[in-house]
Design goal:
Layout lengths: L1 H22 L4 H17 L3 H8 L1 H4 L2 H19 L3 H28 L6
């Protein structure tokens, strides 16, 4: 059942974002920034954590979950190190995810021979 909930929630988030992309003139990069900021805001007001516990990977894998992870890291960094935690906390919380994305993207580029769009 957990897999089904994660699939439906993650798919729902992606479907809403796709509808938003199709019906607005916003560029994809700006929509991605909106999603990260929305995750941080929802985490700050305490709404995202219970939702993420219920939805599992369906809520933590999309960019909204990345924004929430950044918020949690910054919050923990401030608690531990004060003002300098504002700068260090987000990097500490998201380093593994960003590193994994870079490593897997590099490995995929070795396997699939990427080409530039023309």
């Amino acid at each position: 059942m957990d897999y089904l909930i994660a699939f439906l929630v993650g798919g729902g988030i992606c479907a809403v974002v796709q509808i938003f992309m199709d019906n607005t003139k916003l560029m994809p990069g700006r929509i991605m920034v909106i999603l990260v900021c929305l995750g941080a805001i929802l985490g700050a007001i305490g709404v995202y954590e219970p939702f993420a516990k219920w939805a599992g990977a369906g809520a933590t894998v999309p960019l909204v979950g990345f924004g929430n992870a950044l918020f949690k890291g910054i919050k923990e960094g401030i608690m531990k190190e004060g003002f300098i935690g504002v700068f260090k906390g987000g990097f500490t919380a998201s380093a593994v995810g960003i590193s994994a994305a870079l490593i897997f993207a590099y490995l995929a580029s070795l396997i699939f021979n990427p080409k530039m769009k023309s």
